[in-house]
Write a structure and sequence with these properties.
The chain is an all-alpha fold. It has 11 helices and no strands.
């Protein structure tokens, strides 16, 4: 069997297994600490993509089922990002920036008529934007926490000067957390020169003209910038107010 990009068959399965093993081995030998996670992530990706392919095929003709699926994506993204930030299962406040940023943009695109009200159009757009919001939230949250820990003395100094806790945390931690937007900026700046992202390649291989593929990719990149910038701002605000904290900090505060 062949697709537009790959020759499907046993050789592809073997190549995927070898690449996964190579990545896990390099991570283990290099002491990155993620060898087992790489293998688990690859297996999960295979199973999830197979299941999602079947689900999307079944629901793509129904708007209400599409809406439920989009909400499910937001829930999973919130749980994933929350665990990355807090180190535990109670980081559901991560759902605020993710859902607010991604679903607002999707709704605006639908209302403006730029995205047709069909599952086959809504699901990929919502998936791309939700994934971008999740990544931005995770990066901003982790960097906020890292700075909050490393520069605790500066936060305490700001508190001693009379700043409210929220303002003291924002003053010290906002610059580092805002760097979470850098990957999206770099991707947008170098598109076509360094990378050819999935939307461009997919539309082009689907038979559209290069111009249409380029416009589609630009639409996706600008949408991601809007979503990720919004998600980062909301993440910083939520964390400055103390809603998302690592478990160790939360337990210490309760014991105090």
């Amino acid at each position: 069997m062949t697709s537009t990009m790959l020759v499907l068959g046993p050789k592809l399965a073997i190549a995927l297994a070898l690449m996964t093993a190579a990545a896990a081995t390099v991570a283990t030998v290099g002491r990155l600490g993620h060898g087992r996670q790489i293998a688990v992530a690859a297996v999960r990706a295979a199973l999830q993509l197979a299941a999602v392919s079947l689900v999307i095929t079944a629901i793509v003709g129904s708007l209400w089922a599409t809406g439920v699926f989009v909400l499910l994506m937001s829930v999973v993204a919130a749980g994933t990002s929350g665990r990355r930030i807090t180190g535990g299962p109670h980081g559901w406040w991560a759902g605020v920036p993710i859902a607010t940023a991604s679903l607002t943009v999707v709704a605006a695109l639908l209302l403006a008529g730029l995205v047709p009200p069909h599952g086959i159009a809504i699901i990929p757009i919502a998936g791309i934007l939700t994934g971008g919001a999740m990544t931005a939230t995770s990066l901003a949250g982790r960097r906020f926490n890292d700075d909050l820990h490393a520069r605790r003395g500066e936060v305490e100094a700001a508190l001693a000067l009379g700043l409210p806790p929220r303002d003291a945390r924002l003053l010290v931690c906002r610059p580092a957390a805002s760097q979470a937007l850098v990957p999206a900026l770099d991707q947008t700046r170098t598109v076509g020169l360094v990378t050819l992202p999935g939307a461009f390649v997919g539309v082009l291989l689907g038979g559209a003209s290069p111009l249409t593929a380029g416009i589609t990719q630009l639409f996706v990149l600008v949408g991601l910038l809007a979503v990720e910038a919004t998600a980062i701002v909301l993440t910083i605000e939520v964390m400055a107010r103390g809603q998302l904290r690592p478990q160790a900090i939360t337990r210490r505060r309760r014991s105090d």
